[in-house]
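Sample pair:
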Amino acid sequence: MDAAPFSPTVVKAAFRDVTWMHVSRPAVRAAASVTRTLLTEIIEGARAAAAEEGITKLRPRHLVSAIDRNVEVDVANEWYAYSPTFRALDGGVQSAAMPSRGGSARRPKSSAVVGAHRFEPGVRALRSRQARAVPAMVRELDGIAGVFVTGLARDAAMVVREGGVRRFGSVTLVMPGEPAPSQSPETPPRAASAREGYRRTIGTGDVLDATTMQLFGSTIRQRALTEARQAVHTYASA
């Protein structure tokens, strides 16, 4: 299995930014694994876009193409407001790191965006896929990973406070005009989670529940859950 995009210490730091709760070591591994699954999917989509142009070094436009082609990886809206790549698409060409020329106050950044550089998962994720990218592409991957893992931490903490996932259903992507897919007998409807465990500790189950809230696409969600369980099992067996 590929290495996680960032160390457990960094993941724990991201959780501490948003909650006072303790996070178990298996839960940290699960969060790192889920983020790795997301970045891997994005990188593979970007590589496909780059291959169509006959180049091997990934650029931000390939990231945009990957997200356009696979809406399941479009999970970092909070980052897009600060990303030079996505701001340019909306006509906001000014860098998020620079103040406006008029001297007006800058928009406050969330902790996820402020600490995005700290995660630095882009290089590790690219290296694990034997891919190369320009620095701007690495920065985008760092930002997406930072926002995603912070959102994962927030949702996991909420699961602990709520005592389990009771009020949150799942979302299935359906194209306009197409019938909703029937539920596969191999994946029966998820029963409402009645959380077990200490109310001050975020466990593996809480991170997996948070994953179902963060990843709305059924394909990537199932893959992320499967790989996270495998990562936790491997850690426990070590």
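The longest strand covers residues 22-23.
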